[in-house]
Amino acid sequence: MQTEQSEILVIGGSLAGLTFALACATRGMRVRIIERSTGHVQGGDSLSVDLNAVRAVTGFDPRHAPALPVVPAYRDLTTWNALYRWLHDRASRTSGISIEEGMSVSAVNDEQSRPFVTLEDGSTRAGRAIIGADGYRSLIRRAVSPEAPYAQYAGYLVWRGLVDERLLSQPVAWPSNGGLWIEFVAGYRLVAAVLPGRDGSLEPGSRQITFAWFDAHQEVLLRSTGCLTGSGSIVGTLPRGMIDASVRKTLLEAIPSVWPAIWAEAVEAGIAGENLLSGAPIAEYRPERLARGRIALIGDAAHTVSPMTGRGYLTGVEDAGALAQALADLGDEENAVVRALSIYESSRLPYVKGLVSLSCRISDDYRKYASEN
After folding, report:
1. Domain-embedded: residue 274
2. Which long-range contacts link 241-250 to residues 24+ away (Cβ below 8 Å)?
3. How far apart are alpha carbons 17 and 241 in whole angstroms?
4. Domain that holds residue 69
5. CA distance 371 to 373
6. 217-270 per-position pLDDT tens digit
7. Mean pLDDT computed over every residue of the chain
8. pLDDT of residue 134
9. Which positions ≥6 away from 194 have C-beta within 8 Å?
10. Is the dihedral of CA 55, 48, 308, 46 positive or negative?
11. Which of 98, 97, 94, 80 is nearest to 14 (CA)?
12. pLDDT for 280-291, tens place per residue?
């Protein structure tokens, strides 16, 4: 087995996995991240971020150079890409963190002296613990909760776009410290905001414009494109560049009756551009456990909520801090890993179950509104 036995294996090198790795490193623990992609290019577009929480958990202050670009509103906003780059840069330069990219996990085993994962190339990696940070379609969740391993479709998708303001005829008349705009129109939930430009600029004309168009009327499309199983499990998304022209045409035709003029041009640009629009079916997962033996889950792998809660990444940050601290507190005591993961589960499970229940109520209310309008 090719590994340092004292390492903690983190499966998934996206936002939650990187945050947890930094939380461990700042507490003196070694971490190996295994990530199937070779560098994320694009994730979700806008993201709420608690800068104080990130600093407290990771040991790095996003307000210090090199700073994370944010819109300083009542709830700080950034782009998924900017946060990913900031976390990845910190992790790649931090002693005690190793990152293996382009490596897919095919199996998990906790029956030997050390838990280990088998990669698709047949090699293995072992460590003190295995932490699943591999998103809402988590493979590691199947080892923790084999009786209920899959997130379920919440009954709607969200169309997302991120548009460079320089592509528009004029800057959007929305202040750079104005935060989110949210409205319900004609059965849709609409969200839009200005975000920092790719260079971090908040100057009108140099920013990015994001929109999220929540749509509860696309189940037939999701099933016909293979995104949903018969039982309602999500097995795919509608990625950028892969959305049929007829679907985009229908959305474009609806813009004048749905979106106000302040956002309409940006939404049109985001939908008309073949590589700017994505469609993500929304998943929800309410866990009954967060750990089993020497395996645990954090972030969307542990609990999946609607973006309408505004708590997705923040809850992952809280998971990362709680789990890293539990592991650090017990150190190398006998059975320390199992005890630490049990402490983590006990402290986090009641809260995250409540959060997912709230998410489900929000989703129920939105579906009811959509069906009535």
Report:
1. yes
2. 241/274, 241/275, 243/277, 243/278, 243/279, 247/221, 248/272, 248/277
3. 27
4. 8-150+285-368
5. 6
6. 999 999 999 999 888 888 889 998 889 999 999 999 999 999 999 999 999 999
7. 93
8. 96
9. 71, 165, 172, 174, 175, 176, 178, 202, 207, 208, 209, 210
10. negative
11. 80
12. 999 999 999 999
Range picked from 1-10, 27-36, 235-244 for highest mean pLDDT: 27-36
Tokens of 220: 């037939």
Q: Are strands 31-35 and 8-11 parallel, antiparallel or unpaired?
A: parallel
Residue 189 and residue 214 in contact, taking contact as beta carbons nearer than 8 Å: yes
pLDDT for residue 75 is more than 90: no
Three-state DSSP state, 24: helix
Tokens (6 digits) for 186: 């004609």
Examine the domain organization and report whether 315 and 172 are in the same domain. no
Bridge partners, residue 119, by sequence = 105
Domain containing residue 353: CATH number: 3.50.50.60
Task: Give the number of C-alpha atoms closer than 13 A to the C-alpha of residue 266, restricted to the C-beta side.
Answer: 30
